[in-house]
Amino acid sequence: MPFSLQKTADTRVNVLYNMLRIAAIILILSVSASTITATGADENPLEDVKFEPGAFIFDHIGDAYDWHLFDIGGKHYSVPLPVILYTREKGLNIFMSHKFEHGYASYRGFRIITDGPEKGKIRVVREDGTIDPDAAKPLDLSITKNVTGMFFAALLMMAIFLTVGRSYRRNPMSPPRGVQSLFEPLILFVVNDLVKPAIGEKKYVRFLPYLLTLFFFIWINNMLGLIPIFPMGANVTGNISVAAGLAVTSFLVINLSGNRLYWQHIFNTPHVPLLLKLPIPIMPVIEIVGMLTKPFVLMIRLFANITAGHIITMGFFTLIFIFGEVSPAFGYGGSVLSVGFGIFITFLELLVALIQAYVFTLLTALFIGMAVDDGH
Hints:
By secondary structure, the chain is mainly α. The chain is built from nine helices and seven strands. It starts with 8 loop residues before the first helix and ends with a helix.
């Protein structure tokens, strides 16, 4: 029997369409946050530079204004992405990122910084190509690598859930087939093992669109980040701005859904001595700090775990080049060791991708359940 969020197929389809609406909101918030900064400019193909493991790792896990594919014969091959900049003096400027020539040329008075603390950011430059320190920083709304990865994940989610919803509408009582059979157990798991126990039988249904969207958005982006093939491979959830966008969205859902008892426990905690609330509001301060800590913890947990996995995986692959600089024999031996450990970590990352989506969704559901609880 197909899973049932309610007793009718129409309700199931409505929930799926609501998931798509919530996905659009998350996408807008995440895009707005993640386009503030971009790092990871390519090296100059004309320079014979020594291999730097740190720069290699962070260039691959960081954001960028183009999507680097591969190097052949000392030349970089990348997919250019739209650069969207606005300044009061220059107005709105829209062009493709290949105009910067991997950061070694300026265009329309803008240039990508290739070194220093602002590496990877776009700044206003003078006619001679040097940075203008007196010019205001441009408003950067560019479609970067991570933003492109989010767009691809959103389109993939729409294709999946529109297909699943259409199948349920056409054959509401038929056994699941194809894509349905893959996603039905996951949806059942989120509904019955995460959301319903955390929020309660009476109130969980109205939060399902958001929580299901949250789970699949994180999980699908985590999985796509492990596939190093364009348009996959972007470190979306490992970007702290994206993680912050998801955490802020959960924070708003939690607190906007809070009932009277939730806010009473924050500002006037019951069964607490009056001395802890007046004249110095110790308990309200503690409760407010706890309320603000929740989204911070969600953000750091997701960002740190996903980024750490990518760093470890890329760290093993850098051993190939490090050993190769010693001697060819060490390079061949190190490559076998590195690839073996890399495959092991990649399989481990498949598990981590699901666990992080599970933990983020579970904690959000628990916090929502605390906010809407009617007490005893």
